Amino acid sequence: MADPMRIRAQVAGNKATVRVLMAHEMESGQRKDGAGKIIPAWFIQEVTATHNGKVVLTAEWGPAVSKNPFLQFVVKGAKVGDKIGVTWKDNRGDTRTDEATVS
Fold first, then answer.
1. Domain locations in the chain?
2. I need a surface site. Which of 7, 65, 88, 97 has the fewest CB within 10 A?
3. CA angle, 95 then 98 then 102, to 5°
4. What's the distance, CA 102 to chain centroid?
5. Is the distance from CB of 49 to CB of 32 less than 8 angstroms?
6. Alpha-carbon distance 19 to 9, whole Å?
7. pLDDT at residue number 1
8. pLDDT of 55-102, one tens digit each?
9. Taking a C-beta distance cutoff of 8 angstroms, is the pair 73, 50 a contact?
10. What is the DSSP pairing of strand 44-51 with strand 70-76?
11. b vs e for 48-82, b when ≥16 Cβ sit within 10 Å of the residue's Cβ?
12. How many CB atoms lie within 10 A of CB 11?
């Protein structure tokens, strides 16, 4: 199981800025190990964000995204106490979901 995501959501006016740091190795499938063998591709393919259970963002990623990716987005209409959830799924079928409260 992957490490938890670090999610911060802060309100400014009628919108919240959400910052997410995901812990993932994100291998492209193009690097080689010390023995010269190719390291298999392993990367996040799908990212979904929700605001109080309603989907507000979907993204499809590929092997070009860096290790431990950072994602930032804005949610209109968010208020203090609302819930922001983020889910990712990688090309091996592993998933991770974490949630934060808007402050």
1. 6-101
2. 97
3. 150
4. 17
5. no
6. 6
7. 56
8. 999 999 999 999 999 999 999 999 999 999 999 999 999 999 999 999
9. no
10. unpaired
11. ebbbeeeebbeeebeeebeeebebebebeebeeeb
12. 16
Q: CA torsion, points 50, 15, 9, 98, in degrees to nearest 10?
A: 0
SS3 content of the chain, % helix, strand, coil (to 5): 0, 55, 45
Tokens coding 83: 């819930």
Please tell me the CATH code under which domain 6-101 is placed.
2.60.40.10
The identity of residue 28, as a single letter, is S
Q: Going along the chain, which residue ranges are E strands?
A: 6-12, 15-21, 44-51, 54-60, 70-76, 83-90, 95-101
